[in-house]
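Entry for the shared binder. Reason: the reviewer on the internal report wants the predicted structure included alongside the sequence.
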Amino acid sequence: MDVKASVQSYKEELLARLATLVAINSEEGKAEDDAPFGKGPKEALQVALGMMEKDGYVVKNLDNYIGYAEMGEGDQVIGVIGHLDIVPARLEDGWASDPFTLSMDENEVLYGRGVSDDKGAMVASMIAMNIVRDMNVPMNKRVRLILGCNEETGSKCLAHYVKEEGHVDYGFTPDGDFPCVHGEKGMVRLHFKSKNTKILNIEGGRASNVVCAKCRVEVLKQSYCSKKLNDYFNNHNMKFEIESLEDRDVITVYGQAAHASTPELGVNAICYLMEGLKLAGYQDDFVKFFTEHFGVNYDGDLLGCKVSDEYGMLTMVPSTIHMEDGVISGNVDIRYPVTLCSKKIVKMMEDRLEDDFGLIEVGFTVEPLFFAKDSKLVSSLLEAYQETTGDYESQPITLGGGTYAKGIDNTIAFGCAFPNMNYHIHDVNEFVPLDHLMKQVEIYVAAILKLLAL
């Protein structure tokens, strides 16, 4: 069978399915009895499973946490594991078009929340399963497309799958990078709190794993030097607004969102706002605490945990901040190198977690994931990528992002991002070229065939 031609024959079906899923706002919402992550994720799961049931697969919904579609026979299971939930998207944040309406420009570039992370890859995986089935190859293993609903906010969905169904024998999650990801950094989530502050109100960030793109603070008039603040923002090419009210100034700073695992692709509005206030002479305990513990760099140096290994460096992102009852609090996302452990990272920070001006608490930790490059799983998926694309130069990488691979055995991230591409994941105007999605289908067909042959 000509796989490329088969993929082309599914083009309109791929677009239709993706449009249907993008139209569902599957951001985590309020839990209900039959919707553990809210109505949106539940709807997305049911619609996606309905697509696969219509295709003729055996489908199973595990309590609206997660579900799967299966083909083949045998004791061993190949898992293709992705997610249907999304990070928040609001038109007013700067989207050029409605984030919940799939759009395509004249260059066949698709826009909408989830087209890259991870609804696009899920639709590509659906089509790949159909093509493998159409090829009538011997199915000595069961192949499951596993569709989760809570990857962005904790992966409780996958934990529920493992509890009910167990692990897989071979698996990949199309929620990372090509050619494949043989290691994922560990994670530490921190929570900070103020002990005393003159700030009247502050709000910034919408998700704990996203570089903050907008931060708004209210301070008393004449409590800082406006010229120094303006000069600081202008010197750093920061977009900002200062609204003068009767007794206070409202300062809004605009940065650039990015996934917290790649802070170099973003500009952190919280960090630049705090640093600007400090340099403008705003005298405040919390501003002092923040700038002395986090600053504007993302290498963890000010917390005493600047460290790297041959696969990458530690990154630190203060991602959210808000004020309630006079106390400022927020989250910090740390991704640390694959050869280290969380205990060592926490130990490095322990003398910097509290002083007279603020407090930092460790919320949770996640250990790194690492597979040898010559393991059967890594080498098989690498071959699938190389033979499909002709790219024999790109090599397996380690990743700052945490994927489903950390929650289920024998699994690595495999795509969906091609080398040196920034699809604005977790940012406004998330996109994917249509030909990239079509190539993903080809690669996933090859990957499933490789794993069936093991």
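Summary line for the report: The first helix runs from residue 3 to 9.
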